[in-house]
Write a structure and sequence with these properties.
1 helix, single chain
């Protein structure tokens, strides 16, 4: 177990958004920086109709 000193403060904070679109053929995923609305990463995976979680997990 790692112990963090009580006086430790983060140098910066950033919030990320994850968008997922489970389409007919492909599942699209994007990671977006919340403040600047910059797209940091994009990915695609085949949509798995029987279990959408599989395609979402592969895209992530």
């Amino acid at each position: 177990m790692v112990r963090v000193p009580a006086t430790l403060t983060p140098m910066s904070t950033c919030t990320y958004l994850i968008g997922v679109d489970t389409g007919g053929t492909y599942t699209d995923c994007a990671v977006i920086e919340a403040q600047g609305h910059r797209v940091l990463a994009r990915a695609k995976a085949i949509t798995t109709k029987g279990d959408l979680a599989i395609g979402v997990t592969e895209a992530l």
